[in-house]
Amino acid sequence: MTAQPPAVPIQGTTRLYAVLGDPVAQVQAPALINPLLAALHRDAVVVPVHARPSHLETVVRGLRHVRNLDGMFVTVPHKVAVRHLADRCGTTVDIVGSANVLRREADGGWLAENFDGSGFVAGLVAAGHDPKGSRVALVGTGGAGSAVAAALLAAGADRLHLYDTDAAKLDALAARLDAHWPGRVHAMNGPRPGDVDIAVNATPLGLTAHDPLPFPLEQLPPGCVVADIIMKPRETRLLREAAARGHRVHHGIHMLEGQLNSYRDFFDLR
Questions:
Q1: Across residues 54-70, what is the average pLDDT?
Q2: What total number of domains does the chain contain?
Q3: Mean pLDDT of the residues in the chain
Q4: Annotation says 79 is catalytic
Q5: Among 66, 220, 237, 259, which lies 20 to 30 A Cα-Cα from 59?
Q6: Do 187 and 163 share a structural domain?
């Protein structure tokens, strides 16, 4: 068994990072990043902050005045909304329209970035599922899904089929992506992935045990990789049923694991 680094005691000098979400019981960032901070001997801690959508602006504006708070990680359902509360945005945020991390700048303003997509692709590649040249279907074009869509195209996916129950959101994302990767993005008229190499759930369906499947599995070809971005539970209903059908499955936690180096660079955690 690998020894875990000792926990850094929380004291008056401790720097803070918040994880904003609704709910927050499922967030995995504290469990992955706090051991990293301890190993680096950083006097810092990541804590979950449960913020309702109606209170998000108040929370973000208020946290600006917490002088020992250096940044925020952002999860469901705030990734699109928080982008509009940032003072400056990285290029990826401008393309996908969502952010999953905010960093306090020297002037006190928030810089927004999104590493969901790059983290997801890094996780895929590490697991042996390189999307280059592949046909991919992605259901759910919210904050994380939009970032994953862009990253898959940037990684060389040959065709990307998208679906969302919100037709306006779907069409807007498809148009933004087509401006950068013309001819490779196709909107589906229903959550029905067909002959694809990778099928991705980027919806919240699977957070609870009684959720329906985000898309049917019957038409997926043998050998198709079925991926979920949900991190907790690890084994969503989608992944259990896909594995039972003989598909290779890819767990949501790999997306966060794939982001760790990006977080280290973004927050200068050395």
A1: 96
A2: 2
A3: 94
A4: yes
A5: 259
A6: yes
